[in-house]
Structure formats: structure tokens, C-alpha cells
Amino acid sequence: MTNLNLFVENGKKIIGVAANYKSLLKILDKPMPKVPEIFIKPTTSYITEKENIVIPKGFSVNEEVELGVIIGKIAKKVSEKEALDYVGGYCVALDMTATCKMKEARSTGGSWTLGKGFDTATPVGSFIKKSDIPDPHKVTLWCSVNGKHRQDGCTDDLAFSIPVLISFISQYITLEPNDLILTGSPPDMGPVQQGDIVRCGIKDISEVEFKVEAE
Ligand code: MG
Fold first, then answer.
1. Could you read off the pLDDT tens digit of each residue along the chain, which spans 215 residues?
2. Rounded distance from Cα 187 to ligand 1 centre (Å)
3. What's the CA-to-centroid distance between 18 and ligand 1, angstroms?
4. Dmax of the chain from CA atoms?
5. How far is the CA of 191 from the centre of ligand 1 (A)?
6. Residue 62: alpha-carbon gap to chain centroid
7. Ligand 1 centre and the CA of 97: distance in Å?
8. What is the b/e burial string over 21-46, where b = at least 16 CB atoms within 10 angstroms of the residue's CB?
9. Measured in angstroms, how far is the CA atom of residue 81 from the centroid of ligand 1?
10. Angle 175-38-152 from CA coordinates, rounded to 5°
């Protein structure tokens, strides 16, 4: 077995995509964006199994379960047609989001950095080989909090598909091996609190659990 979380050790960036599920856009009453809305999370936000999600003092934090796409080779200005050749593997991920900071950012036009980038804001499961997910647009994501079902969705509902995301990002930002793209969350994300157990997975393929603590 190869090092399961090489991407966590060696990845140089994490790129998130905002509101990328058609069903979520519908709930938010938002039109389909013309291009993906992307943001960067620092790699210091990574945690892996057995580490805890830590809510920074005074923050309100939501979980968002997402399919993570791990880049396998340098991608610079790649076409949509060839984009999947640059995928090295996948993982299940949580894009932990400080809703209090996002609200501030949205009202002032400020940055998403604290809303998305605080320490422990990117919990991830183990590396999944590319061959274990033959069609990344047919995987079912799920998330439960304290054993209660909270989120589920299928990647066939992505507003911008994985090739579109890779191609779009690579026009401006060179993607390097072990970089992670968080492809967006299906609806029904919600707040987590100290003591909660967040469990998430890709149905039949991978799952991982994290405990939440408050600073
Ligand atoms: Mg997200």
C-alpha cells in the first residue's frame, strides 16, 4: 500500500469551488454562474483521521462534505478534453466553513480567507486511487453528525464538472502534483459544535470521522 496521505504532506495548495451543486444553486435561488467561483485554502488547514476539528474562539462553523480531486501531474492551460488525465486520485473531504466570517466577507466585499482557511478547516479521508472511481461524476457523498444523517448528494449534480474545473483553474493557476480541488458541497450543510462527531464518506468507497472541539 502506498502512502495514503502523500497529498497532505506534499500538496502545495487546496482550491475550493463555491456553490457548485445545481440543487444548492436552486435552493439559494442563484443563477448558474458563468465561470466557477474559486478560492484558496492554505495547506496548514489539513487534518487527517484521529485529529480534531477545532472551532476558533467565537466562530460559527458549518461542515460541507465534498469530493476532493487530487492532481497527479502538472496541469497548465489544459483543455477540458484532456483534463481528467491530470487527476491522480480522489478523497472525501470536509470544507469546514466559518459562516460568521463568510457573512462578514459577503457584506463588506472582504476576503474569504478566514472563513475558509483557519487551522483544521480541511479534514480529509485517505487517498483513493483513480482506478477505484471509474466515473467521478457518479459518486454519492454523505455526511452525518452524531449519527444523524445530514447531507447527501451525487456528483452528477455538479454545476461545473471536474474537467471544466481543472481546465478553468489551470488557465490561471498551475496545478501541481498533490494539489487538491474541493469540488463543492451538496445542500443541507449545517453548524457543528464542540463534542460533535462528524462522519462523512463516498458511498461504498471511503469514510472518515472527526471529532469537533471548541478553542
Ligand atoms: Mg465548499
1. 345 689 999 999 999 999 999 999 999 999 999 999 999 999 999 999 999 999 999 999 999 999 999 999 999 999 999 999 999 999 999 999 999 999 999 999 999 999 999 999 999 999 999 999 999 999 999 999 999 999 999 999 999 999 999 999 999 999 999 999 999 999 999 999 999 999 999 999 999 999 999 99
2. 10
3. 6
4. 48
5. 14
6. 13
7. 7
8. beebbeeeeeeeeeebebbebebebb
9. 25
10. 105
> Residue type at 107?
S
User: Rounded to whole angstroms, how far apart are CA atoms 167 and 117?
Assistant: 24
* Whole-prediction pTM: 0.97
CA of 4 to the centre of ligand 1 (A): 23
Rounded Cα–Cα distance for residues 61 and 9 (Å):
25
All cell numbers assigned to 122: 480541511
CA 48 to chain centre: 14
Residue 145 alpha carbon to ligand 1 centre in Å: 17
CA 16 to ligand 1 center in whole angstroms: 6
Cα of 39 vs centre of ligand 1, distance in Å, is 10
The alpha carbon of 189 and the centre of ligand 1 are apart by a number of angstroms equal to 9
Whole-number Å distance, alpha carbon 102 to ligand 1 midpoint, is: 12
